[in-house]
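Budget justification aside, the reviewers requested a transparent look at the raw inputs and outputs of the sequence design task funded under Objective 1. We therefore reproduce one unedited record. The lines immediately below are the structure tokens for a 282-residue chain.
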């Protein structure tokens, strides 16, 4: 199947209409309709129900959706490998959750530049769930995520473990309320058991650095990665809440069983070197 057909199918799903897909792909609506007709002819099933409101997936379209994503992802990977820049003999694709890019993945990129100049690098930032799905589709060689779940075809190994600590601004800076910060389902369950009175905080923020900016501006408390807030603890802008519980926050290197073993060794070496440099000092 032409990968352009699969991409067109995905754009129709995303836009909810053939018109929106045509605009996104910069082609005519007639071309979009023609591609979808070819797809439906090959599948021998309609994939969209068309009406004045747009287009919605049929049951057959729902079944085809994950395969369309895989087809496009495999094509993009193949194109990247074939079109390696001069002087590069291999490609490594690595994903990570947003909160892991500073400083861990920044250090890893510098390590790759210094130690593996022959390897081209492609990086992706996304949620852990989406990164695992990309790996299963063959779109990534490896990912670094918190709280890895077991998936068929994937291998997870502990990379390092951080601590989540309860930190607050000095009392004179304003609010002392605890805000909610999204550190995953396991942490949320532990926090509810420990602080049942804070089960529904007035403010919840899904990204640690944004939560830190908020607390520093208006005051308050929240759980943060200890290494990330160490400079703020040292200069007095934050302080650890006395006798507060801490929570383990492990980061995992997730690898595909299909990843080249030689590449796995380099990935592991570089990430362990980067994680050693990124850990908080005792």
């Amino acid at each position: 199947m032409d990968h352009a057909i699969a991409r067109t199918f995905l754009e129709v799903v995303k836009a909810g209409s053939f018109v929106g897909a045509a605009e996104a792909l910069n082609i005519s609506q007639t071309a979009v309709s023609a591609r979808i007709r070819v797809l439906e002819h090959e599948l021998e099933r309609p994939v969209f129900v068309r009406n004045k409101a747009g287009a919605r997936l049929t049951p057959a379209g729902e079944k085809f959706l994950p395969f369309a994503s895989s087809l496009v992802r495999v094509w993009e990977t193949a194109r990247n490998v074939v079109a390696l820049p001069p002087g590069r003999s291999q490609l490594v694709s690595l994903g990570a959750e947003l909160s892991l890019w500073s400083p861990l993945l920044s250090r890893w990129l510098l390590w790759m530049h210094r130690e593996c100049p022959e390897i081209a690098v492609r990086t992706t930032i996304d949620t852990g769930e989406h990164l695992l799905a990309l790996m299963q589709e063959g779109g990534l060689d490896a990912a670094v995520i918190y709280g890895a779940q077991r998936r068929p075809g994937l291998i997870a190994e502990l990379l390092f473990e951080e601590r989540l600590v309860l930190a607050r601004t000095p009392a004179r800076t304003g609010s002392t309320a605890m805000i909610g910060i999204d550190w995953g389902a396991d942490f949320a369950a532990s926090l509810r058991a420990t602080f049942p009175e804070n089960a529904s905080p007035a403010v919840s923020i899904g990204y640690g650095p944004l939560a830190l900016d908020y607390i520093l501006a208006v005051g308050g408390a929240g759980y943060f990665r200890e290494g990330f807030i160490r400079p703020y603890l040292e200069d007095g802008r934050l302080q650890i809440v006395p006798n507060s519980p801490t929570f383990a926050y492990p980061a995992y290197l997730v690898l595909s069983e299909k990843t080249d073993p030689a590449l796995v060794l380099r990935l592991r070496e570089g990430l362990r070197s980067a994680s050693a440099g990124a850990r908080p000092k005792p």
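The radius of gyration is 23 Å. The chain has ten helices and eleven strands. Computational costs for records of this kind are itemized in the attached budget.
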